[in-house]
């Protein structure tokens, strides 16, 4: 199986072009687990398929390294946009990409025929409790809701970018309980579809530090949808403002994110190829 390994700020996936490779639907979860394994596979945070679509030039499907399928992936979208442009699946620099969470619009920034950075209009965040989804009384927004876990009460702001995120603000990102609270909250019953868990330290209205425990993948170097959720949560909590760009410092690098007055979240960041190759399937 031909693959391309790409990353967005260190959040790497094995990308397979299903315009050319034929994969069986029932094999996909196990294939994601296998290719992601750093010892017996290629090593990544998961598997992403670049597929034909009836509504856009390409469709993205995302599988975490535990084999679970997700509805969206910000770092993945930037890499899919780079791949689609550089492999001639699109001729324009701005185009649609279909995801399980709906279509998004990507714009590639090209230098000497190479896509270095990509801007994605991630659409509008989903804030209603039932749509996150999160258990509890119907509510239009979950902002700084007390959430007791592991005997500690944190304040959670819940945001979906097509995939669910629980955002908590901390005073020192280096002290964030990523390894302890992360896995406990990820599979807490109050999140029926589990949840991505983010910790944010506010530096200013234009700058935050960010760490993440991803649903289905654990700690990653970066999470694009999580960074978008972090900026939305910052605005909802009064730590940032709409229509003002926020620089999100992730372990693997920076994303520039704006929650616009029109409700759409714009994300700009790098997308890079690591290698191409042939994977010997088991
Ligand atoms: N773990 C996520 C999918 C990957 C998202 C992340 N890598 C990104 O860049 O947005 C989930 O299960 O919703």
From TrEMBL:
Binding site for substrate: 11, 64, 74-75, 163, 196, 214-215, 224-225
One Gene Ontology cellular component: cytosol
Site (Could be important to modulate the pK values of the two catalytic cysteine residues): 165, 214
Active site: residue positions: 73, 223
Transmembrane segments: none
Gene3D superfamilies documented for this protein: Diaminopimelate Epimerase, Chain A, domain 1 (3.10.310.10)
SUPFAM superfamilies attached to this UniProt entry: Diaminopimelate epimerase-like
Catalyzed reactions: (2S,6S)-2,6-diaminopimelate = meso-2,6-diaminopimelate
Pfam families: DAP_epimerase
GO terms for MF: diaminopimelate epimerase activity
InterPro entries hit by this protein: DAP_epimerase_AS (IPR018510), DAP_epimerase_DapF (IPR001653)
Domain of life from the UniProt record: Bacteria
Keywords: Amino-acid biosynthesis, Cytoplasm, Isomerase, Lysine biosynthesis
Its EC number(s): 5.1.1.7
Localization, UniProt: Cytoplasm
Pathway(s): Amino-acid biosynthesis; L-lysine biosynthesis via DAP pathway; DL-2,6-diaminopimelate from LL-2,6-diaminopimelate: step 1/1
GO biological process: lysine biosynthetic process via diaminopimelate
Function according to Swiss-Prot or TrEMBL: Catalyzes the stereoinversion of LL-2,6-diaminopimelate (L,L-DAP) to meso-diaminopimelate (meso-DAP), a precursor of L-lysine and an essential component of the bacterial peptidoglycan.
Assembly and binders: Homodimer.
HAMAP family tied to this protein: DAP_epimerase
Family listed: Belongs to the diaminopimelate epimerase family.
Protein name: Diaminopimelate epimerase
Gene name of this polypeptide: dapF
